[in-house]
Design a protein that fits this description.
Length: 66
């Protein structure tokens, strides 16, 4: 009786996701509401600062002679 053997398949890339079989379920993380509130406050204050201080000083700098 003779056995037929199939040639061995080459080993998969050990760093591939299929070879590791773990830690490859990526899910997105929602930004908490308070972090969104902090960013909103930051942008409101940044716009307020630009309107309050930068535009008036820009007008003075551009219109005054050197």
């Amino acid at each position: 009786m003779t056995e037929t053997t199939t040639p061995a398949t080459p080993p998969a890339d050990p760093s591939s996701a299929a070879a590791e079989h773990q830690f490859h379920d990526y899910t997105g993380n929602r930004i908490p509401w308070y972090v969104r509130l902090i960013w909103l406050g930051f942008w409101i204050m940044a716009i307020y600062y630009i309107v309050q201080w930068t535009f008036p000083m820009l007008q003075v700098e551009l219109t005054s002679p050197p």
